[in-house]
Amino acid sequence: MRIEMVVFDGFDELDVFGPFEVLSMAGFDVALVAVERPGLVTSMRGVQLQVPEVLHQADGVVVPGGGWLNRAAEGSWAQAQRGVLPAKLAALAPSARWMASVCTGALVLAAAGLLTGRRATTNRNAYDELRALDVTVLDERVVDDGDRVTAGALSAGLDLGLWLTERELGAATADRVAATIEYRAAQR
Question: Which domains are present in the chain?
Fold first, then answer.
């Protein structure tokens, strides 16, 4: 199973690397992918990555947050405003098994029309904004709505990775990964 994790200038590091490590340890084929073209991507705290691939075709897609709450010039809010990433997500959604988000990445999924009428979560400071997009917001670390799975802020990305691992590979694999990273997951 191939999982593509979208990275863009201004992404939050923990939103990406928490679930990346969990999903990789579980045995998934996980790739960091850019939105439009391969190349250098810089996180919100200055971590630079050379990203060789572009979002194109995956069984699962994870969208991080970063820069939404302060309307940063780069980050998830900027991606939603530009419209390229939401359009690509909307185009890929019918062929993907699921689309997931961490933190304010949920608002990017919502901008793509992928959470309309659905249950989801995001950073608590963005609940009202997500509700305004016709989303039923739940105060949970992970909300599974079938082919859309969302996680709350930052560290909830670890829970998302474990949730998806259990869902796809079973509880024993998720428990093994949780034990390996010495993390007690939220109730799955």
Answer: 2-100+155-180 (3.40.50.880)
How many angstroms separate the CA atoms of 138 and 48, rounded?
A: 33
- Provide DSSP, 13-29: HHHHHHHHHHHHHHT-E
pTM score over 0.90 = yes
User: 3-state class of 109 per DSSP?
Assistant: helix
103 has catalytic annotation: yes
Residue 57 and residue 70: Cα distance in Å, rounded?
Answer: 31
Q: How far is CA 46 from CA 12, 43, 74, 172, 174, in A?
A: 10, 5, 12, 37, 31
What are 51-84's pLDDT values in tens digits?
A: 999 999 899 999 999 999 999 999 999 999 999 9
57: buried, middle or exposed (CB in 10 Å: 19+, 13-18, 0-12)? exposed
Q: Is residue 160 within 8 Å of residue 102, measured between CB atoms?
A: yes
Which helix (H) or strand (E) is 81 found in, with range?
helix 76-82
Set 30, 33, 35, 103: catalytic member: 103
CA–CA gap between residue 32 and residue 53 (Å, rounded): 7
Helix (H) or strand (E) holding 5: strand 2-6
pLDDT in tens, 140-157: 999 999 999 999 998 999
